Amino acid sequence: MHFFLVTLLAIGLANVANVLEARSQPASCSASASCDCENSTPGQFSVCAEESSGGGGSGLSTTGGAAMRECKYFANGTIDIPTMTIITAWVPVGSRPCIGDPAPESNNSVESWSSQVAIELRDKFTALAQRPLALWGPGGEVEILDPIEFHVQAETAVVSGTLLGQSAEIRFRPVAARWEISPGSELYGFHKHHSFHAPGTYVARAFVTYEVDYRLSSVHWVVSAARWELSSNKLAIAVIERERRTLLVG
């Protein structure tokens, strides 16, 4: 009798030990036999999907479903912003980027090159192009209806520097000009004449359009690679109306 009781007690303790051992395993480890729990490291865990029937770990579905692949990504869902945790899961092929995937190749290298050239040319233009100088005459106070001459000086300039990491020359060519004159007039040209029909203080400003050319390593110029507008200084014009006297002859 005592032997029988001891045997039952030993079996019961063994079952309790098995239950406790099963509970001590992470939930993700019971999802698939491919989950390597013993080799897991701190800060890393796996979300293991059940293998499809006849799978053999290839990631290809044999039941007509989507093809699957093992994918690793960070806990925030990205592959380029690291976190302490890395997710490993089976996902449909092509459904998301995974850590270790090769970088996608550019489908339009010509556009990429042109965009980078435009960015660097814009930086050079902003930093190096000389601001146009606006002038007007005759100066001082002018009467209504008197002709006024507007002139803007803008010169072609060539600067040396680098472009896309190569030695380059960059040329700024003024090709057009327009004038904005308060309260809403607009003129076109480097030299213009204008008159005002009412007294007051008017503001005029020129905007010069430049075409930007460049050449790398002394080869031929790439003409009109970009086109931008640069504003001049502001001009203030005081327009008056002189008192008219009538001379009576008797």
Main attributes?
250 residues, three-stranded antiparallel sheet, Immunoglobulin-like, 2 domains, disordered N terminus, alpha+beta, 2 helices, six-stranded mixed sheet
Named CATH architecture of the largest domain: Sandwich
CATH H-level superfamily title of the largest domain: Immunoglobulins
The profile of the biggest β sheet is: 6 strands, mixed
How much of the sequence is in beta strands?
A: 35-45%
Helical amount: 10-25%
In DSSP terms, counting alpha (H) and pi (I) runs of 4 or more, how many helices? 2
Q: In the CATH scheme, what's the topology name of the largest domain?
A: Immunoglobulin-like
Tally of strands: 11
Amino- and carboxy-terminal Cα gap: 159 Å
Using only C-alpha atoms, the radius of gyration works out to 40 Å
Report the CATH C-level class of the largest domain: Mainly Beta
Low-confidence stretches: 1-9, 16-58
H-E string: HEEHEEEEEEEEE
Class from secondary-structure proportions: alpha+beta
Total domains: 2
> What is the residue-averaged pLDDT?
77
Principal-axis shape: elongated
